[in-house]
Specification:
alpha/beta; Rossmann fold; Arc Repressor Mutant, subunit A; 5 strands; disordered C terminus
Length: about 270
């Protein structure tokens, strides 16, 4: 993980730097002693996974509260934020959490140490990574099952490109999306092909399905109208239909999982 430490107390920074030297899971530790440097490092090209933030800067510009306000305005920056402070006020802790802080460590507690903070952050990131991987696998499986039901087979390269295209739409979280600007270039870059070859392969796969699959299967698993002139769905129609179906299934699954158990409702 990549960590940014925002702290103006030199001795405290030195403890973190020394601790970081022996941690195999820590890729990079950057240090900022004030607001100006902290904002500059936060906006670098390499994404920062964790920010360790002191609230009060005694020897430098700004403070942790101003930084949190600034970070909240940057929707493209989403690090895990750990506040490290001597301030024990619960009201202050509540306020910084409302401003975007994820956790608060008190420097004066007997068990506090840089190693404790690093290990905690690594545990959180590892857990997040597993959840993201699980969710991505679930989405991919749903898309694959949906295209198979319609009649697509995996021996046709266009099927893989179609699945990739649906993944892009689902993860984007919106159905209003441009094939030429938002989908084809992403898949083309992944497979080192041209945008045109991606579009053509998907169209060929759709034509093949409409040629060899029985009409009852098509009617059952593809409910929208097909393009009148072509006699089969366009790439966009097919991609958005599957993306919409998979998104609905995912939301339904989340709703079911969020329901309390019957024993809980009766308690």
């Amino acid at each position: 993980m990549k960590v940014l430490l925002i702290e103006d107390e030199v001795a405290h920074c030195d403890k973190y730097v020394k601790c970081a030297e022996n941690l195999p899971y820590l890729v990079e530790l950057s240090v900022a002693d004030g607001l100006k440097k902290a904002t500059a490092l936060s906006e670098t090209g390499d994404a920062i996974d964790v920010i360790l933030l002191d609230l009060e800067f005694n020897e430098s510009d700004g403070d942790g509260v101003i930084f949190l306000k600034w970070l909240k305005s940057k929707t493209n920056l989403t690090p895990f934020i750990i506040v490290i402070t001597k301030n024990t006020s619960k009201e202050v802790h509540r306020a910084v959490r409302n401003m975007g802080a994820d956790y608060v460590f008190i420097k004066t507690k007997p068990d506090y140490s840089p190693r404790l903070v690093f290990d905690f952050a690594n545990c959180i990131l590892t857990s997040r990574s597993r959840e993201d991987t699980s969710m991505n696998n679930t989405i991919e499986e749903r898309i694959a099952k949906k295209v198979e039901k319609i009649g697509f087979t995996h021996d046709v390269i266009g099927t893989e490109y179609l699945i990739n295209a649906v993944e892009v739409v689902v993860h984007a979280g919106k159905l209003k999306i441009s094939l030429d600007k938002d989908i084809y270039p992403v898949i083309a870059k992944r497979h080192k092909k041209s945008d045109l070859s991606i579009a053509r392969a998907i169209r060929t796969a759709i034509m093949r399905v409409w040629r060899i699959t029985d009409i009852d299967t098509l009617v059952e698993n593809y409910t929208p109208n097909v393009d009148y002139d072509l006699g089969y769905p366009t790439n966009k129609q097919m991609i958005l239909f599957i993306a919409g179906e998979v998104t609905k299934e995912a939301r339904l699954g989340q709703a079911i999982n969020a329901r309390p158990a019957r024993s809980e409702m009766l308690a």
